[in-house]
Design a protein that fits this description.
globular
């Protein structure tokens, strides 16, 4: 009798787990794109489950990963970041583009060609394109925005810097720079240099800078799993250049990322970082 009861409970638990997994998978559709843009990055595209049920154009979030996820295995891009957050239950009413860099710094001209592809083949709102990246991806975010501010409505760069020494493009876009003071892979001075350059030369009216005391290189990755992060990004548009300062990022913000449904498997270490 005990064995029958145990097997029954096991069956019910398994069925509930399977149902929950299916429901999570229905929140988005994920496609791997390899070689579709000649000479460019391979990439993931995620779309909300209701994407084909509407004719409305949708926001596009571009996720740029760090150096440890470089290579030719697209599955590595799921290790942390926006795609990983979707797989852990994040519900994002936007299309997501997650390219994989085979190695070296991110190339802004390749990235802008991927935007052209997305606007051609998906219902992407040209006025609502956003970029978020960490480490090498933090550099990539700022380099991309600096080169093509006319394409980006808002951006967030964590634990990175900018390869260019001129920041005119960055000054034109609502930009949130996040860096921990205990970062041993990319020193906080890399972000400070950009922040000081924007503020001294352009005023910094669209800039937000969060310098987090005692925070290491990996912990800001928790922001990828917070819905508020994407709400902040998607609250901006090319139609109206202003910056939303209603959301705060501090050490407590990072700790809140461990919610009940997304508290495991955070990737909080970069093996290496790109330095200019």
């Amino acid at each position: 009798m005990k064995r029958i009861l145990f097997l029954t409970l096991l069956f019910i638990t398994s069925a509930l787990f399977t149902t929950s997994a299916c429901l999570a998978q229905q929140n988005y559709t994920l496609e791997a794109k390899r070689g579709v843009v000649a000479g460019n990055y391979n990439f993931w595209v995620s779309t909300p489950y209701f994407f084909n049920e509407t004719n409305e154009k949708m926001p596009l979030v571009v996720f740029l990963h760090g150096k440890s996820l470089c290579g030719n295995d697209l599955n590595k891009v799921k290790k942390y970041g926006t795609i990983a957050a979707l797989e852990r239950g994040l519900e994002l009413d936007a299309v997501c583009l997650a390219p994989q860099n085979p190695g070296g710094p991110w190339n802004p001209e390749k990235l802008v060609k991927l935007l052209d592809y997305m606007e051609k083949y998906y219902r992407v709102d040209h006025n609502r394109i956003y970029v978020i990246g960490m480490s090498l991806g933090g550099y990539g975010t700022m380099d991309f925005v600096n080169a093509h501010p006319e394409r980006i409505a808002a951006a967030m760069a964590m634990g990175g810097g900018c390869s260019d020494q001129q920041y005119a493009g960055l000054s034109q876009v609502p930009l949130w720079i996040v860096h921990g003071t205990a970062d041993r892979l990319v020193p906080v001075s890399a972000s400070q240099k950009v922040v000081n350059g924007i503020r001294s030369n352009f005023g910094g009216n669209l800039l937000i800078y969060s310098e987090l005391p005692g925070i290491d290189h990996g912990k800001p990755a928790r922001l990828f799993y917070q819905l508020d992060t994407y709400y902040w990004l998607m609250g901006h548009s090319l139609d109206y250049r202003r910056v939303d300062r209603s959301f705060t990022i501090d050490n407590q913000t990072l700790n809140r990322s461990y919610s009940d449904n997304m508290q495991h498997d955070f990737y909080e270490e970069e093996d290496e970082a790109y330095f200019e």
